[in-house]
Amino acid sequence: MKIIRNTTLLFLVSAFLAFGQANTLTQTTLAAAMTASARDITLTSSTGVSVPGIGTVGTQLFVVDYGQVEGEVMTVLGLTPPNTTGTYRVQRTTSKVVAHAAGAMVLLGAPNLFYKGNPTGTCTSTSILVTPWVNTNSGLQWLCSSITGTWVPGFGNTSAPAQATTAVSSATAAMVPSGPLFHISGSSAMTSITVPVGAANGSGFCAIWDSTASTTHAGDIGKSTSGAAGIVTCWTYSPADGLYYPTL
Amino acid sequence: MNILRNVTILCLLAALCAFSQTALTQTTLASAMTASDKTVKLTAYTGVSAPGIGTTGTQLFVVDIGQVVGEVMNVIGTTTTSSYIFSVSRSPSKAVAHASGAMVLLGPPNYFYKYDPTGSCTTASTPVTPWVNTNNGLQWLCSTITSTWIPGFGNKTAPAQPNTLVASYAGAVLPTGPLFHMSGTNAVTSFTMPVGAQAGAGFCIIPDAAYTTASPLTASTGIVGKVQCWTYDYAASNWYPSY
Fold it and tell me: Are residues B155 and B233 in the same domain?
């Protein structure tokens, strides 16, 4: 009896924890181009990819080429024979298959972590299932803003006005954009930009400087810039050289 | 005969007045509401009416910050609790929770549309501005410059085109759309929140002269011919320039 009770409690605690924190989709890229008829996909990273098994569903992939928002859904069926690491056999939907270029963004996760509609209204970042919210029908991404308490546009989503997500401290040399619009606090010099999840399709972002700070031409920053308090600077990504270029 | 002529003139005038442009009213939610709430609390109740004999209840279009798609509600009555609180009917299949501060556009139900406009327009014969398509949330304005329907605030589905020129003013100025020219060299200190922009939409200015902006706005100077864009930050309740 005690075993059943303890097991039940453990299950309930697990369930609570599952809803108490957001999952994050994993981002990688296509290591090689694939044709519309290809059955295998080669990824630059296998992190987070699982093949179907007993009690395990195959990972879902959402492949988006540079400069695009709409993508193609694929489902991992297994490792490509003879079990080549990093290359997976995938199921594709006949009506929507297209060729993809090497370097295309791949967002991946369990199939239930993707959506087919857009969210509206409010949200609480601590109780959402996954971030970003990806609508695989339209490709639009959404983030639950801890600032506004509402769903706001994610990277590459221009269907609604960008609103600020969590502030980024310039004290961290590598800038990790929290969304398409955020504040930068502090007065340090940042030397690189980490491509955030959902932005590997070439999406840019904008930041509101809270004080005078700067970015240095290094890493993937294409040009040094000095931000003045209260000014918005936007960065555009160029896949030609893999650098972010500022508007100022 | 005279009576008939006067009645005809009166009818024509009435028809003309009926077609002159009227603006939707904008306010915000004064408190958050759940998906099942049947009352709404507004920060202002100007223009809100409950249904009565010969009067339809006001329609509300509620859009959260950072969004375009909104929820339609219809005022079905007042409450005894407060002049700011109204009973509303909601579509159960479309009702979602809304945050305090969400934009509320309101007007008679026939002032809202369920499709997008195309082609030309004349402001004098446009019954309401902005044109709001409640199915997709997109807003449109009848441009006095192009005499066509152009994207309104928050509408990025088509290229922004300039709307009525704004003269700089030593105080608050009212943006006429997502893109407009600004003349004069006065120091602008704030922007009046235009109808339709409360959900966080920004706008861009083509400076025709070297106007300046001053506190509480970020200090800046418009450079003639160089587009200056302004981003709205809901948390700070302020606009921030691109240079």
Answer: yes
Nearest CA in chain A to B63: A121
Please give the ipTM for the structure prediction.
0.81
Sign of CA dihedral B85, B86, B87, B90: negative
Structural domain count of chain A: 2
Cis upstream peptide for A246 (omega within 30°): no
Domain final position from B77, B110, B143? B110
B226-239 pLDDT tens trace: 999 999 999 999 99
A14 & A88 share domain: yes
Distances (CA, A) of B104 to B53, B60, B132, B150, B171: 25, 6, 12, 22, 26
Contacting residues of B for A230, CB less than 8 Å apart: 218-219, 240-241
Q: How far is CA B230 from the centre of its chain?
A: 17
Which residues in chain A are closer than 8 Å to B153, comparing Cβ atoms? 161
CB contact (8 A) between residue B231 and residue A121: no
Which of A151, A161, A229 has the CB atom closest to B202's CB atom? A161
For residue range A45-96, list pLDDT tens digits in order. Answer: 999 999 999 988 999 999 999 999 999 999 999 998 887 778 999 999 878 8
Q: Are residues A172 and A72 in the same domain?
A: no
Give the residue from A69, A118, A120, A144 with the most B CB atoms within 10 Å of its CB, the best one to mutate: A120
The predicted-structure confidence for B98-124, as pLDDT tens digits, reads as follows 999 999 999 999 999 999 999 999 999
Q: In this structure, what CATH number is given to the domain that contains residue A6? A: 2.40.30
The tens digit of pLDDT for each residue in A133-190 reads: 999 999 999 999 999 999 999 999 999 999 999 999 998 889 999 999 999 999 999 9
Counting one residue from chain A and one from chain B, the pairs whose CB atoms sit within 8 A come to 105
Measured CA distances, A152 to A48, A179, A194, A200, B35 (Å): 26, 9, 21, 19, 18
